[in-house]
Amino acid sequence: MAGMGIACFVMGAVGAMVPGLPTTVFLLLGSFFLTRSCPWLEERMLAWPVLRPYAQFVRSREPLSRTVRISAWTAMWTSILFSLALLALADRLPVWLAAAIVLAGLAGTLAIARFRRA
Q1: Who contacts 24 (Cβ-Cβ below 8 Å, separation ≥6)?
Q2: Cβ atoms within 10 A of the Cβ of 71, count?
Q3: Residue 104, Cβ neighbours under 10 Å: how many?
Q4: Are residue 2 and residue 28 in the same domain, yes or no?
Q5: Global pTM?
Q6: 66 close to 74: Cβ distance less than 8 angstroms
Q7: pLDDT tens-digit profile of 43-80?
């Protein structure tokens, strides 16, 4: 479980720096895995300078408002569609990659829908 948590935090850090890649979903998953297996490591990961702005969101217990959910979905799908369009225009979008990106977007949509519901 700790290995999955570390991998998710690394992907979240990459997502914080690369447009079009999700950050929050990976941090939530990483936090989930590390809270159960290695809580002190979760604290260290959330202390990374690139992830520090997201730490307050991950630690909060307040339910997400409808406005926040819609904003998150809008930003995520705008990034996904923009990335798909750029890859397609550059003729660098194999079907398997498009499917993987869309499936990741659907997973992110579900994660946002289920995360801290009121």
Answers
A1: 12, 54, 57, 58, 72, 112
A2: 13
A3: 15
A4: yes
A5: 0.59
A6: no
A7: 888 888 887 887 777 777 788 788 888 888 888 898 89
Report how far residue 69's alpha carbon sits from residue 74's, in angstroms, rounded to the nearest whole number: 8
CA distance 86 to 42: 35
How many beta carbons lie within 10 A of that of residue 20, not counting itself?
16
Rounded CA separation 99/96 (Å): 5
Last residue of one domain, picked from the residues 19, 35, 60: 60
| Same-domain pairing of 47 and 77 | no
Q: What is the pLDDT of residues 6-53, one digit of tens each?
A: 888 888 888 888 777 778 778 878 888 888 788 888 888 888 888 788
C-alpha–C-alpha distance, residues 42 and 92, integer Å? 36
